Amino acid sequence: MSWLTPDLIDILLSILKAVVILLVVVTCGAFMSFGERRLLGLFQNRYGPNRVGWGGSLQLVADMIKMFFKEDWDPALLRSRDLYSGAGYRLYLAAAGLRYRAG
Length: 103
Fold this sequence. Notes:
ubiquinone, oxidoreductase
């Protein structure tokens, strides 16, 4: 197996690590979404996702499809300069406040 060089092994291991990390993150997101829907169902005294579909798995797929095709909405009077400068201004105030902390 002369084609299996150390560089190729490093590349394949990097790809494998990236795929594993991606699968872990996606799985955690799915479980968090399921838990959120279940908890909200209990709070609102309605059926949660485990009573709809095949144990709630269809609800996760429906949420994923909804998020992929959700339309981006911007208010008509939104000025992006104000939106982004407001975030920077808050960051500046927080950093300036660190100078005057007790201690």
